[in-house]
Each structure stands twice: as structure tokens, then as C-alpha cells.
Amino acid sequence: MDILRRVNRRKRRPRRVQLLVPLLLLLWIGMGVFEASRPMPEGLAVSQPWRPATEVQLLLDQTWQNPSGERISDQQIFDQALTMIAEARELIVLDMFLFNDFAGQDSFRPLSSELTQALITARQRRAPPEVVLITDPFNTLYGGVPNTQLERLRQAGVKVVMTPVHELPASNPLWSALWSLCCRFIGNDMAGGWLPNPVGDGKVTLRSYLHLANFRANHRKTLITDAGDHWTALVTSANPHDASSRHANQALRFSGPAALDLLQTEQAVGRLGRIDTRHWPQPPTAAPVDSDAELRVLTEGAIRDALLELVNSAAEGDRLDMEVFYLSHRPLIDALIAARERGVVIRALLDPNRDAFGREKNGIPNRQAGWDLYRAGIPVRWCNTHGEQCHRKWIRLDRSDGRSELISGSANFTRRNLDNLNLETDVQLVAAQDHPALQQARTAFDRLWGNAEGVEYSLPYSAFADHNVARYGLYRLMEATGLSTF
């Protein structure tokens, strides 16, 4: 009898193991569906009302190499940001994705320390303004490394808000499901670990790597300040990140009710970070715009909707120019190809996805997306980078009726940036084609496309063409599943 019992127990154990495997698999799938289907928190993914385009200014950063090989950087964006901070009286709100000096040994400019000092100086005034910095937990590698700039700001009385990105939908649900089941509640340690730091010297913990693989991010890049009697805002593609200081970037600065619309979108992120924003001013009630130039603030999925509406509305005789760091979003690529078939003249200037802070990348996704455009007859050129990145994210449509539209901001043209996963902010400007900001945008693009003044700003499609079918398949898989950094 004892022998029979032991035999029966041995038979039951394999059955339990066999049942455990599908149960864990079912739990993994269920958690993945849950993480991917999280709704965006309240106040995100919004399209603010159209407002008069007040004091709109286009700011550009550009690095190039002259014929003698000298690298030259012309920068406007953070110079303007520092001026805005110096003029603020009551409130300064920044939302910046990267705010650190990681991998910045060979930087052109110490942007993070410059911005830190400007904010500390503002806090040291006799009547200091309230200063709020909203940023992403990547700036401490998710609690794995110290960030000197953020600590200095806290000590000066700046409210530093680490965005709780775990409350956002999962952009990499296959991993985020496992993360939520096994690792999310394990603490991290800034004292160091045993793995190489991916962004600098020293060692980091395994948990920093595991957290990084979720690829959730607050990718916004905004600044709102008052100057006593009016509000001014900046929406940009640029980060106060030392190693990014040579990147090509763009920004729109504007004032008036739209600046308060932008502040309202940041209140939603502030609430996520558990700070009290109820005393911040609210935008005025929307009214019909009596102006030849108007703009609106867009966040998250509203950016995607505006992009698709812009491209899908383009007609024969219209001209569309785009310059973007990452292009991979399939509905947008399909819309561009369809617009080309309708007779829209399109030019695409793309980063070759070669350089990443001293490391060489494999060209995914831009070389594969560029192949799609090239096969459809859309002219493609590559930014001629030399270690820096062509980090702009903007598109401009010049209509045959004399009007133009520009969408510009933080959002790359990817699934992660456009489909309600990352936090993003863009601005849409609509005006006559001779509006100064639109004229400047057109001139800047033409200069790069045509290699003006004998400078090789851009290269022909053949310079980085990649028609490898396996890499193309890998790009499509990475875009669809979120198993990617773009």
C-alpha cells in the first residue's frame, strides 16, 4: 500500500508541473493585456483649443562641419529658455525628459548645469518664484545612480517631480507583464551594482536594466513662465542633457492664452506626481479666433490625430516637408505614401540612426522606413551627422491656397511617441505662408536639403540606403511589439 501511495504521488507531481506552466503563461498574457490597455490618466492626450498665435518665434539649434572640417554649432533654444527663467516673477514650470550630464565628457555645452544654476538663481531672489521641474526617472537610472543637478535643485527649494511612468500604458507589454509580476516592488540602490553603467562610468544594479526595458517615458520638453503681466511658453525637441548639446533641434516660443493651455496640460502630469497645482492660473474660456495666425497645444495621441489629419488633407499641388529623428509609425507612413499618390510633393529628411553618444547604431527604424518612402517615389535625404543627432521632430505643409501648417514638438513619429504611450507635447501653427516662423522653417529646411553655402548638411538616399529584408522584418516586429528603444 505504501508503495502504491508513493507511486501515485510521483504521478501527481508531473501533472502539477504541467498545469503550472500554462497557468503562468496565462498569468503573463493576462498581465500583458492589462498593462497595455491601461487608460491614459485624466488630463492627458488632449487637443487644446485654437488660440491667436501671439509672439510666435521659431528657435533652431544646428551643428555642421564646414569644408575645412571644423565643427560649428549655432544654438538658440536654451539661450531663450535661460532668458525666460531670468524674467519669471511668480511661476516657472519645466517638463524635461533628459536633465543630466550623463556621457557628457566631450559635450559642446554643459546644458544641465547651466539650467540648474538659472533655476537656483531664480530661487535665491528676494521674492522667489515657485519653481517646478517635472522629469523622467531615467535621470537617476530608476534610482540606480545619483543626479547632482536634481539634488542641487531640491536643496534650493525647487519642487522636483519624478513622473510615475508605471501609471502609463505599457509600450513593451511583453516585458512589462513580467516586470509587474516579478520585480516592480524590489528596491534599487545608488551605492552601485555589478553591471556596467550604460550612460557613464561606474556600475549599476540589475534592477536599473530591468526597469529600463519597460521603455515607458515622460518624453515632454516644455517650459512655461510668467513675466509679471503675461505668460510665455516654449515647446521643443531639445533636452538639457550635456551629451545632446550638439544635436539639431527646434522649438516654438509663444505667449498669450496658449501658454496657459500648455500650463494646464502640465497640471495633469503634476497631479500624477502628487503635487498641488490648484493655485496655478487657468486658461481663459475658448473663443473664436479672430486672427490670420492661430495655434494649439497637442499632447500624446492628439498629436497623432493632428499629423494624420494634416497629411490626409494634403492635395495635389501642396508641398510637404518633414525632418525627424525617428520615423516608424505605420499609419503615418501609409498616409504619406497615399499623399504622394495624390500628387502632393513630399521631401523627407531623416536622421540616419547611426550615432548614439559614442555608440554606433544599426539604422533601425529610419533606414527601413526610408526604404518604404523611397519605393513610393518620395525623395529621401539623410542628415549628415558627425557624432551628434538630427533630433528634430517637425512637419510642414504648404498648401496651394497660400496657407501653411506646422506641427513641431517632442514627439518622434513612432508608435511609442504617438499612440498614447509616452508623454509628449507638440504645437500646431496655422498661418499664411509668409508668417515669419513659417518662412524661417521653410528657409531652414531648404538650406539643409540643398546644401546651401557649400556645406554638406545632408546626403543622398544612397549614402545610407538599407534594403536588407531581414532588418526590415526586424523593424516591423520591433515597431509592432514595443521591443525597441524607438
UniProtKB/TrEMBL annotation:
This is phospholipase D. It is an enzyme of class 3 (hydrolase). Residues 308-449 form the Phospholipase D-like domain. It holds the Pfam family PLDc_2. Its EC number is 3.1.4.4. GO terms for molecular function: phospholipase D activity; RNA endonuclease activity producing 5'-phosphomonoesters, hydrolytic mechanism. Belongs to the phospholipase D family. It comes from Pseudomonas saudimassiliensis. GO terms for biological process: lipid catabolic process. Coiled coil: none annotated.
